[in-house]
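Many introductory courses stop at the sequence. We go one step further.
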Amino acid sequence: MKTVYLDNAATTPVDPRVKEAMLPWLTDNFGNPSSVHKTGRAAKVMLEDTRDLFAEFAGAKPSEIYFTSGGTEANNFAIKGCAFNFLGKKNHIITTSIEHSAVLDTVEYLKTRFGFKITILKTNKSGEINYDELNNAISEETFLVSVMHSNNELGIINDVRNAVVETGGKNIAVHSDMVQSLGKVKINLHDTGVNFASFSSHKIYGPKGAGALYIKKDSPVDKYIHGGKQERDRRGGTENTASIAGFKKAIEILSAEMESDIKKYSEMKEKLVSELKNGFGNKIIFNSYTDERSLPNIMNISFDRNSVKIDTDTLLIKLDMNNIAVSSGSACTSGSVKPSHVLKAIGYDDNTAGSSLRISFGRFNEENDIYEFVKVLKEIIS
């Protein structure tokens, strides 16, 4: 039986066109981009073509794009690189309670290991940031604000330009985790004004093992990975050419198909909301916005624990046994039995946060997937 895959926020399947584009770089075109012979030069040309393409798609300059192994490395590169640049000068970082663990764990490490002071801002019930509170948290010691553009569990979209406005003229850098946003909303990095932005290939039907960090010209950041002069001497290590070739193809496809992708996601989200309301009534709690304030491909729900007596782990197992793939939150933390830190951060108790499901659509889903998911869900709940 076919698996109904509704966990595209965790990872997307590789588009067959991306796979075809990668194959030559796994076989004949095996050169090291740092080599001066023609085999290496061919890889270098592809690498720079990808950099140019991504920069144009995201509204940046090619010289501001640095390839990484994914979003987690990009987040670490930006935050640790900026922190090490200010070591002994300034010591305060501001972030939010709904960030991905790649941000929260990184700032916690900087606090524990190096003594940096960290302020973690609360959000409202929907995950929206209060920029007045951000302004009030800024001190003379603040050097970095890290605010995600769209949340990986709720889908809420925050206007990170507001963070740039609040930090304007204060010698404070702004970083934004944009991993979930790429391909779901239009992005122009220069318009946002951020200093750093993180991206990942495997969220846009590309391969795992490739991502990018945007570093605005003259932004304060130290080299993160040492050992070579790659990436203009800012990130050592031989580039993952095959995955970057796949990343390139994924961006080419997005350039042509993003509008139709978004239209499809929006229609499926609208259909899911309707089916859930009809099937469960007031037993369902919608944890995320159902309109344009959140990403079109992510929906987060919980069940009223007074009406539905089932824990998320059991529910996920039973859905999986019926070939339905969804998650209880971020794939990086969902292996834990703890309730979602995001839902707890926006005010839900352990029971409600512990009964959440994240449903996320993709390019290869069909409307019938929604009907099948709701049908199986009703059978399990009843």
